[in-house]
């Protein structure tokens, strides 16, 4: 079955690009990525705010791509800066749509911070994992826009929370990776670099003269192009000023500015154009700046191809799709050395990078490029190759698809994780109960026998040497402590027991100099006497240092007691009494060993100090004799 992905793009619908109008990068991103994902086998639903009453609730846009309009606030255009208040309603309505779907969604891909907020709600309610492409980060925007930033103050905190809750964050360029880590404390492994792309069927090299003919532009002049949204941060004024700073050449240099609030380029409709016209007049270049207004998307390739150089010098740019489109049409780019532009444009190869808001630097690079047809030609080739290798939407979709699979593979919804954890806990209890019950059946005899042997040894003034590895080393010390100290009696005589695991100097020296196998045997040889007990804890019965110790003990006529499990191993063969827990699970065997250790202590204390009352007997009435 196809993976079903829910895109959320609360303010940017892919349908906005259908009218031919070049809307923001996010509309293009969402539409193109969905289209390409469908091509490689995903089913994508794009959830976007219902902002036009003439549109139906659900539109089957392409094969396997639907656009779902979600009611949230008035069914009309609302500036994105005022949309956050409607996101709870968006989340509620989106969740009820998702619940009613026959096939469940596998993953949510949120776009922009408000969609990220919705994605968190969806994850909380339906346990669907989510990834996010922020497209722009509030913290970075704040640095550059300051007071002009009209988004709600909580944006940055919400983004920070999203970074924590998201299963993966898609960064669009290396700068985005750095920003996420530096301003949002994102860990590097939460971030995957997935750039933006362009569509090679839409943007491809065209003959320059033909393009100029189509647009009715002069064939002989140098043409530089600025294309994109007309907002101050895009630095269009910088390009106008640079034109004024260029040294005059025999060929006329013209700047074409494409973009604006509407197709109508009157200044009443476009206050930004009015401002730029003022700057052009100041710079003395009014006659060489052409404001072309907003253009249909299918016309953009002619503008890119008609230009000798494409310019984009914003103050900052999360990614910037226009440089890709220009390069795809074979036009070198001079871009600001910021954000995604410094990733897509390779300085000196596919164009140049310049500081933003520096018209002199831009003018100098323009002069270099326009004066060298050979350089322009080489950069053109490099540009076409670079964008077609790294930045097609199909490659972007392949990267995104890989990322989705990675997230889905590692994702276990919280409920499932909890259920699995609970199962594990209950299973451990059940297993332990089982081992206890079976041990009761088969171990009571050997336990009594071992207790008798130890008691008798103590009566003969003999001692107990105890050993084991790992957890069993801890039990060895545990048993020694109970015997030397006291167990259930409030006071009694000390019993001679030594854990052979406790002297780190002996252990390290002997294992370091002669090998680990003899560490216990050596100690048995040193302090063991005939009649003493060697008490070994080993779950497998196969630890060589234990079997060596047993052999030495037998040699010295000591009594050997083993606490084992599994099949008893080699150790069982050397034991006078082997208490073999009927289980093959090391931890369950160890737990049983601890229980048996305590039972042995109870028995030994009872045998040796039968007249003493447990716990309640005051120390003063107890004598120090056996
Ligand atoms: O506590 C545990 C496992 O629960 C471990 O430390 C475990 O005791 C060690 O792996 C031992 O080396 C196992 O030795 P043995 O019980 O097979 O003689
Ligand atoms: Zn353990």
From TrEMBL:
SIS domain segment(s): 454-614
Enzyme class: isomerase
Residues annotated as binding Zn(2+): 478, 482, 590, 598
CDD domains associated with the record: GT4_sucrose_synthase, SIS_GmhA
Cofactor: record remark: Binds 1 zinc ion per subunit.
Pathway membership, UniProt: Carbohydrate biosynthesis; D-glycero-D-manno-heptose 7-phosphate biosynthesis; D-glycero-alpha-D-manno-heptose 7-phosphate and D-glycero-beta-D-manno-heptose 7-phosphate from sedoheptulose 7-phosphate: step 1/1
Function according to Swiss-Prot or TrEMBL: Catalyzes the isomerization of sedoheptulose 7-phosphate in D-glycero-D-manno-heptose 7-phosphate.
Name used for this protein in its record: Phosphoheptose isomerase
Top-level taxonomy: Bacteria, Pseudomonadati, Bacteroidota, Cytophagia, Cytophagales
Gene name for this UniProt entry: gmhA
């Amino acid at each position: 079955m196809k993976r079903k992905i829910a895109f959320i793009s609360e303010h940017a619908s892919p349908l906005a690009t259908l009218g031919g109008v070049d809307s923001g990068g996010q509309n293009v991103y969402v539409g193109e990525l969905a289209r390409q994902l469908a091509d490689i086998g995903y089913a994508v639903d794009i959830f976007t705010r219902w902002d036009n009453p003439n549109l139906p609730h659900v539109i089957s846009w392409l094969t396997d791509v639907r656009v779902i309009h979600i009611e949230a606030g008035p069914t009309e255009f609302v500036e994105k800066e005022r949309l956050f208040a409607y996101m709870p309603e968006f989340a509620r309505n989106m969740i009820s749509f998702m619940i009613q779907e026959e096939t469940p969604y596998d993953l949510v891909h949120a776009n922009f911070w408000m969609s990220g907020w919705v994605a968190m709600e969806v994850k909380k309610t339906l346990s669907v994992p989510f990834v996010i492409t922020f497209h722009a980060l509030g913290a970075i925007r704040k640095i550059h826009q300051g007071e002009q930033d009209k988004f709600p103050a909580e944006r940055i905190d919400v983004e920070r929370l999203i970074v924590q809750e998201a299963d993966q964050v898609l960064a669009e360029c290396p700068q985005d990776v750095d920003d996420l880590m530096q301003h949002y404390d994102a860990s590097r492994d939460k971030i995957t670099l997935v750039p933006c792309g362009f569509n090679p069927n839409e943007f491809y090299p065209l003959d320059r003269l033909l393009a100029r003919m189509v647009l009715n532009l002069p064939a002989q002049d140098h043409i530089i192009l600025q294309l994109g949204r007309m907002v101050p941060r895009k630095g269009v004024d910088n390009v106008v000023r640079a034109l004024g700073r260029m040294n005059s050449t025999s060929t006329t240099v013209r700047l074409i500015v494409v973009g604006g609030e509407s197709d109508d380029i009157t200044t009443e409709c476009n206050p930004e154009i009015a401002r730029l016209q003022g700057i052009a007049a100041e710079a003395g270049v009014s006659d060489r700046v052409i404001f072309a207004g907003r253009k249909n998307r299918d016309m953009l390739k002619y503008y890119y191809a008609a230009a000798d150089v494409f310019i984009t010098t914003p103050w900052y740019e999360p990614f910037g799709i226009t440089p890709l489109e220009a390069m795809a049409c074979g036009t070198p780019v001079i871009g600001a050395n910021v954000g995604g532009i410094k990733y897509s444009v390779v300085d000196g190869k596919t164009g140049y990078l310049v500081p933003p808001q520096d018209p002199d630097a831009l003018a100098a690079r323009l002069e270099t490029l326009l004066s060298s047809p050979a350089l322009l030609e080489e950069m053109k080739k490099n540009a076409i190759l670079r964008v077609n290798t790294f930045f097609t939407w199909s490659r972007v979709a392949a990267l995104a698809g890989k990322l989705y699979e990675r997230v889905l593979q590692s994702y276990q919804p919280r409920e499932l994780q909890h259920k699995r954890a609970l199962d594990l806990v209950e299973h451990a209890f059940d297993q332990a109960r089982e081992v206890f019950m079976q041990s009761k059946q088969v171990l009571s005899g050997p336990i009594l026998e071992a207790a008798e042997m130890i008691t008798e040894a103590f009566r003969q003034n003999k001692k107990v040497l105890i050993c084991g590895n790992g957890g069993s080393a801890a039990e060895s010390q545990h048993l020694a402590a109970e015997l030397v100290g006291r167990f259930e009696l409030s006071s009694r005589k000390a019993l001679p027991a030594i854990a052979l695991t406790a002297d780190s100097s002996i252990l390290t020296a002997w294992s370091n100099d002669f090998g680990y196998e003899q560490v216990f045997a050596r100690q048995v040889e040193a302090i063991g006497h005939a009649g003493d007990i060697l008490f070994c804890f080993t779950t497998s019965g196969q630890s060589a240092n234990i079997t060596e110790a047993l052999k030495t003990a037998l040699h010295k006529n000591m009594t050997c007691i083993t606490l084992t499990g599994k099949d008893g191993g080699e150790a069982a063969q050397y034991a006078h009494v082997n208490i073999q827990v009927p289980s093959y699970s090391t931890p369950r065997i160890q737990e049983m060993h601890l229980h048996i250790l305590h039972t042995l202590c109870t028995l030994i204390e009872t045998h040796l100090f039968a007249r003493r009352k447990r716990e309640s007997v005051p120390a003063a009435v107890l004598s120090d004799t056996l």
